[in-house]
Amino acid sequence: MRLVLASANPDKVVEIAAILGGFEVLPRPADLPDVEETGETLEDNARLKAAAVVAVTGQAAVADDTGLEVLALGGAPGVFSARYAGAGATYADNVAKLLAALDGEHDRRARFRTVAIALFPDGREVVAEGVVEGEITTERRGSGGFGYDPVFAPEGGHGRTFAQMTAAEKNALSHRGLAFRTLAEHLLAG
């Protein structure tokens, strides 16, 4: 099965392609403009991105949206995780804002949620979700991964952050890994 990736984030593309190894995964068309993530939910945003790819390519598309939900922050940054520190924020900017917001906070429980969608030209869609519980560390640890990986220690990770894991270890535990493996199972089941 051929799927066109909707993500313009090269870090996500590498992860998704590795997780969907049994599928023919094509890159996002270079001429596709950025899709504004105006949805109120992760699923809304994933659907917007997938629909934009289907409209341009006429082929099945796969997209996702991910949010970090921190209990002490009432679920923030949530759907705004990629732009938590503002439009054009870097990974480092977002992490710095998160650590500042949690300064002195003892309850550092958090979860990552990913919603993945495969959308077909005939309008059929397959939706899957992956959730991983964990906590936000008090400082950055590790050099791998991207985004909030240096400050998110998942359950089952033996106290390590995603940034301290190999790509294979992270994909085995991560929200994105869970979402895309579930999506692949649903797609293969027909």
Detailed description of the structure:
- The protein is α/β, with parallel strands linked by helices.
- The chain has one domain: Alpha-Beta Complex (Maf protein).
- The protein is built from five helices and seven strands, in the order βαβαββαβββαα.
- Strands 1, 2, 3, 4, 5, 6 and 7 form a seven-stranded mixed sheet that branches.
- β3 and β4 form a beta hairpin.
- The protein is globular, with a radius of gyration of 16 Å.
- The relative contact order is 0.17.
Low-confidence stretches: none
**Which range best describes the helical content: under 10%, 10-25%, 25-40%, 40-55%, 55-70% or over 70%?**
25-40%
Number of strands: 7
**Helix/strand class:** alpha/beta
Name of the CATH first level: Alpha Beta
Computed over alpha carbons, the radius of gyration is 16 Å
Number of helices: 5
Report the mean per-residue pLDDT as an integer: 94
Q: Could you describe the largest sheet, including whether it forms a barrel?
A: 7 strands, mixed
Summed up, the domain count is 1
Strand content: 15-25%
What is this entry, summarized?
The protein has 190 residues and is of the alpha/beta class. The chain contains five helices and seven strands, in the order βαβαββαβββαα.
Q: What keyword list fits this structure?
A:
single chain, alpha/beta, Maf protein, 5 helices, 7 strands, 24% strand
Topology:
Blueprint: E1 2-5, H1 10-19, E2 24-26, H2 42-57, E3 61-70, E4 77-78, H3 91-101, E5 109-119, E6 125-136, E7 152-154, H4 167-173, H5 175-189
Helix pairs in contact: 4-5
